[in-house]
Design goal:
The protein has 14 helices and 23 strands. The strands form six sheets. The chain has a seven-stranded mixed β-sheet, sandwiched between helices. It has a five-stranded parallel β-sheet with strand order 10-9-8-11-12, with helices on both faces. Helix 2 runs antiparallel to helix 4 and helix 9 crosses helix 10. It has about 525 residues and is α/β, with parallel strands linked by helices. The protein folds into two domains: about 250 residues, Aldehyde Dehydrogenase, Chain A, domain 1 (3-Layer(aba) Sandwich), CATH 3.40.605; about 210 residues, Aldehyde Dehydrogenase, Chain A, domain 2.
Length: about 525
Amino acid sequence: MTTPLLQNFAAGRWQNGSGDGETLTNPITGEAMVRVSNEGLDLHEAYQFSRQEGGVNLRSLTYAQRASLLKALVEVLTQNKARYYEIAQANSGTTTKDSAVDIEGAIFTLGTFAKLGASLGDAHLLREGQIASLSKDGMFQSQHFLNPTPGLALFINAFNFPAWGLWEKAAPALLSGVPVVVKPATSTAWLTHAMVEDVIRANILPIGALSIVCGSSKGLLDHLASFDVVSFTGSAQTAQIIRSHPVVTQKAIRLNIEADSLNSALLDPTALEGTQSFDALVSEVVREMTVKSGQKCTAIRRIFVPKLAYEAAAKAISEKLKRVSVGNPSNEAVRMGSLVSFAQKQSVIKGIEELSSELDVLFNGNSGAFMDVTQTQHACVAPVLLGSSNPKPLSKVHELEVFGPVATLLAYEELNDAFDMIEKGEGSLVISLYSDDPKFVVQASTRLGAHHGRVHVISSDVAAVQTGHGNVMPVSLHGGPGRAGGGEELGGLRALGFYHRRTALQASSLMVDALLKQSAVWVC
């Protein structure tokens, strides 16, 4: 039986790529599911159609009208959720609970931007800041406005969030009036494709406002134009290739990069075993190691605890990890599914071996059997906790991210030592602090804030309602400096800034007032 080929949607029509393409497989059974190929696709035609048809028609609508389109997308995706869960389980190896992080998170983010966009009303541009006088009599003024960029938004996405990874980018882009071309990661492209297919067949968006190209990334950047924008999520190595691409450099293409990073958890130096902060850290670490099998760009990779709490933390985390059942996600007794592919498993195993050369193995669940897994070649990897009670001279632990259910526990004697080690990560998406002491939180946030896109504080008064170290909320910033890529996504209406061009209008008060009436306040 021939493995079905997923079509690309480009230039306003469904198109087959030529050749055999690449095959997507079930990471538990190895079964071939679908194929993808974009070979022979005319990307120049596709991009031109997106700009001239999708973009022009989107921008003819007001922000409120585009917000209503997002609301309609939510309804379509919600109606088809059952199918998405089936695809996620088969293609990504995720349990129902882990699939929800991706699928429900995507729909929730779309719904949030639909509500935010409705508040912008019947405007076609945004205004920022206050009017500034440029003359003594106040008649000649300056006001900053933001216009949607007349280009397209190209999304090059990662394999770990095929649903959320699309819609957290597409929601602010479409709300801004910018057409989207998404190139999903090949290994998990099926779910992205299913969602795009449902949206296009529902005929909600203007034709050309949403396109999908599955398969190779060859030539993807070659046909970009000056007003296009690119948002990439993936490895720092690939990010460097994108940054140095001739078209990107020559045409000053605006980039948003989210790369790999070594996110941290830091326990208050006074929070020893038995305190609520200690217990909160243990629970959060286990959750972050196991949700989506640790394949989250925001997952906790390094855990910093006071030296007096090191042994107790190692024991407490290990005891919880022992109770995590790993295996076939179709089995309801399984708590943690597989990695997305056998290739990803090999990468994780290699990373564990490399980290083990300078760290102690505190827990390794891979000696036991996996539940309901009969194939010899599968992508399951159980949680692994590595650590050191004397990590100050170590280097690999601050350089190598193992993108799976792996974390490192590191002891510190003085708080400044912990700060120094955290900073060796050279920029991360998120750090979580565990403390009931405001002075500690202020000290840590002041020292480490510039190194992180988000500081997540878990204290006993919010323990029951906090949203989680690794959960990205649409109204909060997602991104990070340095190694994390230097990009910014989400953050409520802040996200629209990437898809707009800021202009200073210098004119008489009469002219400024006329444009003010056509704009909405950009409250960010």
